[in-house]
Amino acid sequence: MLPTDVLNQVIATLQKGQRFFLISHVRPDGDAVGCLSGLARSLRKAGKTVELGLVDPPPERFAFLLEGETLHKPGERPLDHDAIIILDTGDLPRTGFAEALERPATVVINIDHHPSNTGFGDLNLLDVEASSTCEMIVFLLERARLPLDPEVAQGLYLGLCTDSRFFQNENLRPAAHHAAQRLLETGLDAGAIVGRLLSTRKLSEVRILGHALLSLQLEMDGRLAWVALSAADLARHGATMADVFACGLFGQLTGIDGVIAGVGFVEHTDGKIYCEFRSRRGFDVKEIAVGLGGGGHLAASGCSLARPLADVTAEVLQRVRERLGGFPH
Ligand SMILES: [Mn+2]
């Protein structure tokens, strides 16, 4: 449940304010793009002015949600809005707007479901049990009596689907389905959105997924699965970092029978290594990611390290092995 006092303050701010600046995180995912789109469309339908800030462009398959939008970069906009709303982002640096937001003249509203959220806003609307920030926005719009029609629902449904892995996450609470119900009740064509998500893969995504699955390693009696992709691996298949995120690799690591923890290491062209953690049965990978300067959820988290791939792989796997060793069979 959303904390009622904060919720009421957020609702009051949304209702009274006229100009809003909405921001989400670097390398935006379906939830980030979806809630930007959904909240922006709803506020505009209520007669408000909304501008969007996003450091990285949305992945191609989600880009239709932000078609025609100007996506502002840090420093481009005078921050003279009635509120700055930061969505689906665990900490300020992850927005890419940290410097621009150092001394904002306006109230910062932080709406998120990441357990690692640092509570950086003036108003922090946090619900760590929500499947997605989109789920939170559905209930927020309802409570604030803001417009919720098929156009608003589009992005919210997409984010709900992607962050809940199409309602397959462990510990998914009924509220996720309730939010889906509310979105479908608008008359939304949900089949079109799911179809778009499932049949728009790029060849480079499929190829890098194939490469990764063939090279993945199992250890600790099959409880730990990991895979390391070098920049050369990506180049060989014409794949980008975005393709690796989009291809579904990380979710597949914990889809293998017996696997409790999965780790994907991906070498970025700038030399940094991105580590993505996934888990099942309540094994906490967020603690590992946070310990390495990252963040995320209990069962899905990540961090970035600026060291050679082999070093990062060795050190991170050692940390996972230590924790997993003490985790019940
Ligand atoms: Mn999310």
Automatic annotation (TrEMBL):
Domain annotation DDH: ranges: 20-159
Protein name: Uncharacterized protein
An annotated Gene Ontology molecular function: nucleic acid binding
Pfam families listed in its UniProt record: DHH, DHHA1
Record-annotated DHHA1 domain positions: 252-324
Domain of life per record: Bacteria
Matches recorded under Gene3D superfamilies: 3.10.310.30, inorganic pyrophosphatase (n-terminal core) (3.90.1640.10)
SUPFAM superfamilies found in the cross-reference section: DHH phosphoesterases
InterPro entries: DDH_dom, DHH_sf, DHHA1_dom, Oligoribo/pAp-PDE_c-di-AMP_PDE
